[in-house]
Task: inverse folding
């Protein structure tokens, strides 16, 4: 990519930051109670400081990659801010924590960079389908705009992490790479099922439904896994 491995990714993050504005916030956004609860849970997941990931990226010894990771973390924190403001515009608070986020954080902090990225990619793949459902399934213009902004970022995050994982998995023998990515797909399917159950009322309200949500997340995992390999 370009003259340096991560130079183009950095430029992409910088361009997105320069173009980024805020929606026209207003009060009284009519969030359905099931969607409100769902957004509150996703907001918690977006609201990490990313310190562990940044530390691991810096320890990896690639200054450009570490810089790109810091930009990625800043975008994730901006997602949390956008969701918090969306909730506030409808008079809803953020929540302090949710069990699903605690599980993901614990797993990620216990692992090295490669495995942390694999766990992170599970959350990113689920987020792609969730924010698309939130964008397309609601009648509220502000909710659609916030979800669309976050989705646009997530569509850039997935290839960014795939690029790093492909480089990380390359030294492994092909059968091991296949085993790793197949295990990743199985874990993603399990997580998608848990999310579908936990967010089922909101997904139904958004016109997706549990089964369709899981099926489409699983279907999307094939090309992602192939890119990692």
Result:
């Amino acid at each position: 990519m370009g003259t340096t491995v991560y130079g183009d990714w950095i430029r992409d993050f910088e361009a997105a930051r320069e173009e980024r504005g805020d929606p026209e916030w207003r009060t009284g956004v009519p969030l359905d109670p099931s969607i409100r609860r769902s957004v509150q849970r996703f907001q918690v997941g977006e609201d990490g400081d990313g310190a562990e990931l940044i530390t691991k990226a810096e320890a990896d010894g690639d200054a450009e990659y570490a810089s790109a990771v810091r930009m990625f973390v800043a975008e994730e924190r901006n997602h949390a801010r956008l969701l918090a403001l969306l909730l506030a515009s409808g008079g809803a608070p953020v929540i302090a924590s949710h069990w699903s986020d605690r599980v993901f954080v614990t797993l990620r902090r216990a692992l090295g960079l490669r495995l942390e990225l694999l766990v992170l990619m599970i959350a990113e793949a689920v987020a792609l389908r969730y924010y698309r459902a939130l964008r397309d399934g609601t009648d509220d213009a502000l909710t659609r705009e916030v979800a669309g902004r976050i989705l646009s970022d997530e569509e850039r995050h997935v290839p960014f992490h795939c690029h790093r994982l492909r480089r990380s998995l390359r030294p492994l023998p092909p059968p091991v790479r296949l085993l790793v990515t197949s295990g990743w797909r199985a874990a993603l399917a399990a997580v998608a099922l848990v999310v579908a159950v936990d967010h089922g009322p909101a997904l139904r309200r958004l016109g997706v439904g549990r089964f369709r949500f899981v099926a489409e997340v699983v279907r999307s995992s094939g090309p992602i896994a192939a890119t990692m390999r």
User: Anything to note?
Assistant: The first helix runs from residue 7 to 19. The two ends are 18 Å apart (CA to CA). The chain has ten helices and no strands. The chain has a mean pLDDT of 89.
